[in-house]
Amino acid sequence: MSIDHIAVLGGGAWGTALANVAASGARRVTLWGRDGAYIEAIRATGENTLFLPGARLAASVAPTSRLADVRDAGALILAVPAQALRAVARDLTAIVRDDIPVITCAKGIEQTTGLFMSEVLADVLPRAYPMVLSGPSFAADVAAGLPTAVVLAAADALRAAALAEELSGPAFRVYHGNDVRGVEIGGAAKNVLAIACGIVVGRRLGESARAALVARGFAELTRFARANGGRPETLMGLSGLGDLVLTASSPQSRNFAFGEALGRGVTVAQAMGAGKLIEGALTAPVLAAKARAKGIDMPVASAVDAVIGGRLSVDRAIEALMMRPIKSET
Amino acid sequence: MSIDHIAVLGGGAWGTALANVAASGARRVTLWGRDGAYIEAIRATGENTLFLPGARLAASVAPTSRLADVRDAGALILAVPAQALRAVARDLTAIVRDDIPVITCAKGIEQTTGLFMSEVLADVLPRAYPMVLSGPSFAADVAAGLPTAVVLAAADALRAAALAEELSGPAFRVYHGNDVRGVEIGGAAKNVLAIACGIVVGRRLGESARAALVARGFAELTRFARANGGRPETLMGLSGLGDLVLTASSPQSRNFAFGEALGRGVTVAQAMGAGKLIEGALTAPVLAAKARAKGIDMPVASAVDAVIGGRLSVDRAIEALMMRPIKSET
Prior knowledge:
The structure is a homodimer.
Chain A: E1 5-9, H1 13-22, E2 28-32, H2 36-45, E3 61-64, E4 75-78, H3 85-92, E5 101-104, H4 117-124, E6 129-134, H5 139-143, E7 148-153, H6 157-167, E8 172-177, H7 180-202, H8 207-227, H9 232-235, H10 241-247, H11 254-263, H12 268-272, H13 279-294, H14 299-308, H15 314-322
Parallel strand pairs in A: 1-2, 1-4, 2-3, 4-5, 5-6, 7-8
Antiparallel strand pairs in A: 6-7
Helix pairs in contact in A: 3-4, 7-8, 7-10, 7-11, 7-13, 7-14, 13-14, 14-15
């Protein structure tokens, strides 16, 4: 391996799982989290009992809450939520060296600015080299050593390929590409569509209805990506289609579970109040706004946004999604 | 409505469900099946207790085993398996009038000839007007009045649109298109890919692995369609993506359930022997052969074909599918 020290920032389930795969070959991995007591518990028990119970932390992973410990890492993996990316990136400004790969894993769009994740990085950390990691991957699957395929994108495909090879293991397969925008849009938009799928399932409308919604949702996701500089073929891959399929059918996905609760009649406030972060709920308003601004037709995302914003009942949303006028399919 | 009599040929779950939706507005519908005793039981009980239990047959649906009863129908819907299409079409040669719409619903490729369903129709019933109905739709969902969206394709989009409108109801939405080849390939290929997804799930490889396989499977399905005259955007719709999503995630799908059994270690002969028709198992060899003949890379379909043909163990197939060399995604 050419990078002997990788830092993962964010001690949630995904950050912990990524730290373990990055530690293959006994590579030194620093796992940083802001909350000292929480990180100390991970260090002391050798396990993230709160978010990834049952998975032993690899021996070469060192949990820390001191940001200075990531300073000499050869690559930084930012496994923090979309709305937290700016704050963490800002904290890194004094630390990152020129041209160091900074990989964001967040699947969302910044609410306050409408910026995509790589744009937030470029804004706050212009000296770093931004990359995006996305794709269908439950942290629990990765931690259990089950086969998983994700995609790492950077403007320079060769740099993406080199780092993808560093991070790949026998079960964790990292493909590479250079369509940064397409990959990050796939991750962000699928979380919003997963909420719609959850609503349909929660309302017991059947699997046929959910499948039709996935097909329509995929079409609007691809439209949005194309209008924002992403390539349709990227969206047909792991980030986009693959991730949509995973998130849109599994209660393991928080976004799907949130939608399912709404479909069962739970209020938005109650469904939100469970304390878990719902990336899709935070991204829905800004995704819908960006679509409107560019005149992109996104009925599914717009309906999700309106339901979350309290402007549309779940029943009316379902009616709008399922009972639209018949027309040509394409 | 402009067609006051529609005939549905095939008294399985799908034929029965379609007969009911075609009967909306009290339209006369003839439901034909070859087996007189079986059809008589449906007629006597007003229900297809064997394949669609719990769904009352609409009052205007007349079950029959006399083929002559379909003679004056304004459209024929052929809800028979792919490998049975030729025989039923042949029986119709003396009956169909010129230019009558004949809609095939089979999701497969003819094994003995390698012909697509519309090609079989053109071969046997050249005087009829061929159409294809496909998309994500469990008969039980349609029978229960749950929202379902399918696509009807014909070379003439206007004719497809007119008939789609005739067949559509408030819950059963029939979109239309003119990409006959794309629509029929979507239906045929997804059944093969669903077997692969079942294998992965049966082997307990996790949902992330299944999602990655769907994404890769979709890519090869699209490649195959493009090389055979289908349009990629069709495959991104209901037939193709939508149907793949449905079939690849639900034990309600026989193809998925067959694959799941293989994944759990059941032999091909045992899994086949359950007596249910597995369209994907019959289509896999001919799909793989057609792909080879045109030099189209279809690793997933080829692996399914090899497993069914006894030339590859399930474990080796999984290895081949999941552990391929890392490369660029697109």
